[in-house]
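We were asked to recover a plausible sequence for a given structure. The inputs and outputs are reproduced exactly as logged, with field labels preserved.

PROBLEM: sequence recovery
POSITIONS: 209
GIVEN STRUCTURE:
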């Protein structure tokens, strides 16, 4: 008689040894990685990493909202907020310009849906607005990643997106916009062609979806 091994919840923070494995795998793929205690430490580190006056786009992220990083970037006046500028423009007449702004900021900051122990990042999106910057359009990318987002591989990452992240994001979208979210686009970053361009701030605590 065999006993099934229970699947780890997608909400459980990874222990220290798994975080170290993820960090090592990401570094081997040319990402810069820092393991930090919590969201407060990430908030401080993000401010240190972004020079004052830089144009910065924040991808939609509960991690950034809950940590205060989104407000720091978009309301402090320290940076040129691409999101604020884009929302002030008429989408009917300036849509192409808005998309160019979103795709090529000096810095893009966000989170991911999953990070694998094999050193890949998975980002899911309904609109795709943040994906060009993550993929290479921005000069620098910073991802703040809670410890619960660690999974073994890309197969598990996709399961986390479909079974865990999408229902939670749909609930949020219904409250905010009156309609559910959709899994329209998925970006997988297996390595960084330009060493050090992408920085992953890997937290020891769970935050966000």
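RECOVERED SEQUENCE:
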């Amino acid at each position: 008689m065999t006993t099934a091994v229970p699947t780890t919840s997608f909400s459980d923070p990874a222990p220290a040894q798994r975080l170290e494995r993820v960090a090592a795998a990401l570094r081997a793929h040319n990402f810069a990685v820092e393991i930090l205690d919590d969201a407060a430490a990430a908030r401080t580190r993000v401010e240190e990493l972004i020079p004052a006056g830089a144009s910065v786009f924040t991808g939609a992220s509960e991690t950034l909202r809950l940590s205060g990083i989104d407000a720091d970037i978009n309301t402090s006046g320290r940076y040129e907020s691409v999101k604020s500028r884009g929302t002030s423009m008429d989408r009917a007449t300036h849509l192409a310009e808005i998309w160019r702004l979103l795709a090529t900021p000096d810095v893009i900051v966000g989170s991911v849906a999953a990070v694998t122990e094999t050193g890949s990042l998975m980002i899911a999106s309904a609109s795709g607005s943040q994906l060009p910057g993550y993929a290479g359009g921005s000069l620098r990318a910073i991802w703040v990643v809670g410890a619960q987002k660690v999974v073994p591989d890309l197969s598990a990452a996709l399961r986390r997106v479909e079974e865990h992240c999408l229902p939670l994001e749909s609930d949020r979208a219904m409250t905010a916009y009156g309609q559910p979210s959709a899994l329209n686009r998925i970006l997988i970053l297996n390595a960084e062609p330009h060493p050090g361009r992408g920085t992953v701030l890997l937290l020891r605590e769970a935050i966000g979806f």
